[in-house]
Amino acid sequence: FLEWLLDTGKLELDGASLAERVVYHDSCYLGRHNDVYMSPRKVIGSLKGIEIVEAPRSGNKGMCCGAGGARMWMEEHTGKKVNTERSQELLATGASRIATACPFCYIMIDDGVKENGRDDVIVQDISMHLVDAIEGRGGRSGVSVADGPTPGDETVEAHQPG
Fold first, then answer.
1. Fewer beta carbons below 10 Å: N end or C end of the chain?
2. Backbone phi, then psi, for 145, in 5-degree steps?
3. What are phi and psi of 21, to 5 degrees?
4. Are 141 and 15 within 8 A, CB to CB?
5. CATH of domain 2-145
6. Where are the alpha helices (DSSP H) in the chain?
């Protein structure tokens, strides 16, 4: 949806920038299940000043954050927690921000980053990286939203069970 807003001119960044190094974590659902890899990177890359770096395991060879298969609620008794390992891999890129497009990945990676004692690294959904850039981390400048129809304006009949 964010890519569509940018491509159709519904969201114009007008110079919004975020001069930081960002690593994107590919979620299992969006990436491996739906084969969406470049769209989130395109959205993040639309900001001026962004340097996108890749983790060793990314794209279709990406590593799960640990939330999949209900592991989010499981306590590890042997070895390293999956989210801790994934977070270490993302932190090793030297990025000051970690972006994801999945709320479960956000929780797992944010916890992993904190467990690694790295409160200096920001973990956010890609939409929040856009907000930070647009607002200049506090002010409202450099953005315009064009008028017109939005995705989902077309009438869709709801499926009624039974």
1. C
2. -115, 120
3. -95, 125
4. no
5. 3.40.50
6. 2-7, 38-45, 82-91, 103-115, 126-134
| Tens digit of each residue's pLDDT, the chain (162 residues) | 888 888 888 887 777 777 889 999 999 888 888 888 899 999 988 888 889 999 999 999 989 888 876 665 567 666 678 899 999 999 999 999 999 999 999 999 999 999 999 999 999 999 888 888 877 753 333 344 444 444 444 444 444 444
User: Following CA atoms 2, 4, 134, 19 in sequence, which dihedral angle do they give, to the nearest 10 degrees?
Assistant: 80
CB of 119 closer than 8 Å to CB of 87? no
Q: How far, in Å, CA of 3 to CA of 37, rounded?
A: 12
Structure tokens at 2: 């964010």
- Please give the structure tokens belonging to residue 34: 């739906």
Q: ∠ at Cα 140 (98, 152), nearest 5°?
A: 70
What's the rounded Cα separation, in Å, for the pair 146 and 35?
Answer: 29
Spatial contact of 38 and 74, defined as CB atoms under 8 Å apart: no
Here the tokens at position 33 are: 């299940």
